[in-house]
Amino acid sequence: MSQLPALIPTLPILAALLSLLVGLRSLRGGYLVALAGTFAAFVASVLGIWEVTTSGQPIRYAVSGWVPPIGIEFVLDHLAAYMATLITGIGVLVLMYAPRSIRHESPGKATFTYPSMALLVAGLAGMSVTGDLFNLYVFLEIAALAAYALLATGDRAGPFATLRYLLIGAIGGGFYLLGVAFIYFSVGSINMADVAVRLPDLVESPSIMSGAVLMVVGLALKMGLFPMHFWMPDVYTNAPSSSAGLIAPIMTKVSAYAIVRLMLDVFPPGYFTEAIPIAATIGWISAAGILFGSILAIGQQDYRRMLAYSSVGQIAYVGLGIGLANPIGLIGGLLHMVNHALMKGLLFLIGGAIRWRTGLVRIPDMLGLGRKMPWTMYAFVIAVLAMVGIPPTAGFFSKVYLMIGAVQADAWVWFAVIIISSLLSGIYFFRMVEYVFKDAQEQNAAADDSATGGVTARELEGAVAGEVPASMFIPIAILSAAVILVGVFNFFIVRALLEPAVAPLVGG
Amino acid sequence: MTIEFFAGRYPYILIAVLLGIGLYGMTMKRNLLKKIIGMTIFLTAVYLFFIHGAFKYGATIPVYTPELGAEAIHYMNPLPHVIVLTAIVVGVGVTGVALALLLLTYKRYGSLDEEVIIQRMRESA
Prior knowledge:
The complex is a heterodimer of chains A (508) and B (125).
Chain A: H1 4-25, H2 27-55, E1 59-62, E2 73-76, H3 78-105, H4 110-129, H5 133-152, H6 158-187, H7 192-198, H8 206-223, H9 231-238, H10 241-266, H11 271-275, H12 278-298, H13 303-324, H14 327-358, H15 369-372, H16 374-388, H17 394-408, H18 412-437, E3 463-464, E4 468-469, H19 470-488, H20 490-501, H21 503-507
Antiparallel strand pairs in A: 1-2, 3-4
Chain B: H1 2-28, H2 32-54, H3 78-109, H4 114-124
Helix pairs in contact in B: 1-2, 2-3
């Protein structure tokens, strides 16, 4: 069991390498290797949750036997297990979904897509279990490189949009690395636990402050926080549905998680709120980002672009949780990471299903789609209810935690922002719900099979209820169920995993 | 006084200037290739910061030599160098991917100018 922290990132890395080798000979074999590696990491993460919650102690693993703080250390604690399970779980579902969607949208690129997906999961899972500041940077860039490859395989404008994302990512990574240098040269260690022990004597040091600011700014750039979000709409609009469905839910969240990790476990309690007002800054930027993303999402005609702007707003909820910097607010932010990952993953996969079946991406064209793909559209309604935040779906509870946190912090403006943004997301999503369930007999736009770019009748054989194949429908169904179950059982998640995780704030 | 100020801090000033040039290139230049060159300069400045921080006068490579004894003062700190080596590898990977994306962009739009590409993107959409 003590090997679990190392297994979570290494299994998918190994799978990615093998998957490429096998995939060059047999596409199906390569796919199965990638899926098996990701699934094994998922099992390891779930076991990790079990171990950590029963023993209450983090599992520590010293890489190749070098004792920390000299060697690199992997630490699987409550928060890391929580994130790793989310990342690998989404990875497994999207890999299940991917083959049919890729064959339809970016044929011929599948051989390299599956290893990249496994590598992305490995990088993000590595970021969540690592206990070393520099190792975090390495995993961050592994994940980023895999993400660039996945995103650039999309439509015509894909490579250009991805290049702009890469440049922002490079600035973010560079700032983070510079911050690590400041911390290392002042403290003499890059092991998170060791730095945390040595820092309290040095809190007044200006180079520690510069280091902290640089690291957080770098991660915030990677997180796509407003106003550095401008790459997001173009990237998600031009990416293949399965790539967007993997990257949009988890990629930005893990950078947010890294900020939370720094705030809770590396810097002394209250450092980000009292010594330097960085938490409040992130909070205000996030509040602006929530409104900006939600308002711009209303005007979008392209389904994927609407989701991208909605993501700009939703990642900012996590930023708001960081900004509140009290236990309840932070729990809300962390819970929202999982909730939003499930909802946004579901919405992107539904978008891919619509594109597979009908070739449509523009919302006005989707008139009457509810008649043609009723089951997929029921899943869509569940996702919409969660996005707006209607109980008992998952989206409701994280917003409640955030609102209680805002009340405790006397942050009434942020409280208002959460409510206004919920109403705004109601506007843009219910507009689309109205469209797809409208009777299309008069206009008969989408209901016409000859519309555009959809699958042929032969490919439709074996599809579930004449909609999409089982390999695409099952992940959608699992995610819809998860959106409701996580909502209903959120109390257990908070009690078992998140309350121990935010304990440093309570003590401080 | 100014001479002493610069004499003591010139590595930091050099690093700050390189960071500035890199960031300027990445954000202000319209040509995508120049943006990538800016990125390389920016990353190099970060590497130099690590190398400068690890530098010691009169120290040798970090391999134990009986004549010098075991005191750390006689040896270079290997850790920042290892970090920089890893970071250079990461940087090469990022630059490689960036150049590949640049090539694809040029093939599809026939230009490296960001504004022209955005305009052609709008026309085709």
